[in-house]
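Much of what follows relies on a compact textual record of a protein's fold. Each token is a code from a learned vocabulary of local backbone shapes. The record below shows the convention in full.
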Amino acid sequence: MGSTKNVLVYIEQNDNKIADVSLELICKATELARDTGGEVQALILGQGLGAELERPGHYGCDTLYYTEDERLAHFTSVPYAKVVAALVKKLEPQIVLFGATTQGRDVAPRVASTLRCGLTADCTDLKIGSHKYKKKIYEKTLLQIRPAFGGNIVATIVSPESSPSMATVREGVMKMNAPEPDRKARLVKEACELTAQDFPTRVLDVVRTIKSVDLKSARIIVSAGMGAATPEGIALVKELAATIGAEVGASRPVVDSGLMPKDHQVGQTGTTVRPNLYIACGVSGQIQHRAGMSESIRIIAINSDPDAPIFDIAHYGIVGDVMKVIPEMIKAYKTGGSGP
């Protein structure tokens, strides 16, 4: 195993539409493959994938392996994991990447267990570098970076003797490049060799819940932290967001307190965002939250504590009570900054 220098991405699809996280991973895989000296490969399972098979090539995939079978139309753990493990074993890539989604977190450990290789979960960055252990130096190995110990530190994990090196990567943490419609991947169809015994369960019905907010696509986000964690504070955050045409985000403590739904959570255990403008209202800026918003193009932080960690990454900082600052911001926006 791992005899090639290639980087393989598991493509997740739902209702024959490729998940954004998979395209993000292909973009990252192009960087990794450039450093390993290999190519970018991808695999996808389903039925009637049609034009979606062209999309990975637009983002940098060199070769796309696909298996179509009506029994694979909807995701089920056992058959998907068996097909993926067999193809990984056949292709012998150096690196295999999965999205840290419900589906990716289901398939990846099953494949790792089958192949007896290492797996690092919930990575926030990936790099190719060298690693020295005792007197041996491993060149061009995968450096898997992720928060550890409750998000209090950022750890770099290596598994140079694991073949292949496998990782799941959180949604939104890898930048998705603009597609190149003229770029095409080589398509290779793989036969489905599953038997009836490989399908211990079957899908009777599919029910999907639409999220109440799409933070990943938001250009402006106004986020509430514990400094605004009162009904009045949340109301002000929502009013500011409505005034400037923004989506409403929240830190984990605010969500855990029941003041905001989970879909609005930004951070390590929530959504990773990259808006043009991120306004942090009463957010302390612990590493768990910064992991999900630090790459925003512009960050405005409002906090009564001048030593709050959020000011370390903010482009503009306002030291003050959010209950007093936000109304002034709303007033200034409505009057065009002309004052009373």
Q: What stands out?
A: The chain has two domains: 7-198, 220-334. The two ends are 70 Å apart (CA to CA). The mean pLDDT is 92.
